[in-house]
Design a protein that fits this description.
Number of helices: 11
Oligomer: single chain
Number of strands: 11
Strand content: 5-15%
Largest sheet: 11 strands, mixed
Strand order of the largest sheet: 1-2-3-4-5-6-7-8-9-10-11
Structural class: alpha/beta
Helix content: 25-40%
Length: about 375
């Protein structure tokens, strides 16, 4: 009996979908489109393959400006944004689950924005019924136009579970009633754009606004924010977001505000906290102060200095992890900086039995990807 040769097109839709999903899984980052090339090629084979792949192809969508800096784009690459909004019809928009909007360069805009552009952007978001993750970066000079567009349309985003926004976009939290993950974040190339004037009163006012916005999130389980943390901030956070399972405080200059051991008194109030991401060891206020000048690591004694600094850093990380695991009995994992991860093995009654360390470059599961 002759064998009948099967082609991909002969497979049933469920099998084809799993194959296409595996091809599309070459990329998981919202901002990485390189892994989509094989999937795009599959979608061009015929109408059948397009129907199978379209929901995967448009699952992650980014509207971003040019990779290279350009003074022409200081006001935002709205030409790209307008083209994307116009091109993505409802038949495609309905598949979007992760959306990133980042069309600005590292320099602040100097011209007032076109309010109609922001109205169209907000209406575009409203056309995404499956939108789960939203990364929205709009600099301060154009922020009022974004807020006004939301107010004018009265649009809500009930499907959004993950929100990444730059400081002063706090009003977005009130538009996402079912939010589970929130990240106050600025893109790496925005480091010279201060979100607000360097005023203690202004910063404190922002913190109060942020805490009040968090009150509207009934199911927040993960929160991250960089900056100087005070004890009052931590106590307020335990009150408005008691269900937190993951807290990232990386980048907070504790050594200038409050040391880690003191802050653990507040952190211990999180009864469900499973992961805690801390700043680098020298920022924890635990007595580790390595030389900042590169000259200290040069010359005949440089190797010895580097070795001592590395030993002291590891000791400080271990002190931090032991203290955190002892204070927060639900805690399972502690990160110190980007490269050091500690996992705890607990015995009877939740007591700490063993801490297992892994150091070096490893997957951190960043929200901002």
């Amino acid at each position: 009996m002759a064998r009948i040769a099967l082609t991909l097109n002969d497979l049933n839709d469920d099998v084809l979908y799993e194959i296409c999903w595996s091809v599309g899984a070459l990329t998981t980052d919202v901002g990485n489109t390189q892994g989509q090339v094989p999937l795009k090629n599959l979608s061009l084979v015929n109408k059948h393959f397009r129907e199978i792949t379209v929901s995967i192809l448009f699952r992650n969508v980014c509207v971003v400006g040019p990779a290279s800096e350009s003074r022409m784009m200081i006001e935002g690459d709205w030409m790209t944004a307008r083209a994307a909004i116009a091109a993505l019809q409802n038949s495609l928009v309905k598949y979007i689950r992760n959306f990133k909007f980042d069309i600005y360069t590292s320099e602040r805009p100097t011209e007032p924005p076109a309010e109609e552009d922001f109205k169209q952007l907000v209406k575009f978001l409203d056309r995404m019924p499956q939108l789960r993750k939203l990364l929205l970066y709009v600099p301060l000079p154009h922020l009022k136009a974004l807020e006004s567009a939301f107010e004018a349309t009265e649009i809500m985003l009930p499907s959004v579970k993950i929100l990444v926004f730059n400081p002063l976009c706090v009003f977005l939290m009130n538009k996402c009633p079912n939010l589970e993950v929130a990240s106050v974040h600025m893109p790496d190339d925005w480091v010279y754009q201060r979100p607000f004037p360097d005023s203690v009163d202004t910063v404190q006012e922002f913190k109060v606004t942020l805490i009040n916005a968090l009150r509207s999130t009934k199911n927040l389980r993960r929160f991250e924010a960089k900056g100087p943390w005070h004890m009052n901030d931590l106590h307020a956070l335990t009150t408005v977001a008691p269900k937190l399972q993951w807290l990232e405080m990386r980048g907070g200059w504790y050594v200038h505000e409050v040391d880690l051991l003191t802050s653990l008194a507040a952190l211990s109030q999180f009864k469900n906290l499973e992961r805690l991401d801390l700043a680098d060891a020298y920022q924890l206020g635990l007595g580790f102060n390595p030389p900042r000048c590169g000259n200290a690591y040069m010359g005949p004694g440089g190797a010895g200095v580097r070795k001592q600094v590395e030993e002291d850093r590891k000791k400080t990380e271990e002190i931090a992890a032991r203290a955190a695991f002892s204070s927060c009995t639900s805690l399972k994992e502690v990160w110190v900086g980007e490269l050091s991860k500690a996992r705890v093995i607990r015995g009877e009654g939740g007591h700490r039995d063993e801490i297992i360390w892994s150091r070096g470059k490893q997957e951190t599961n960043r929200i901002t990807k």
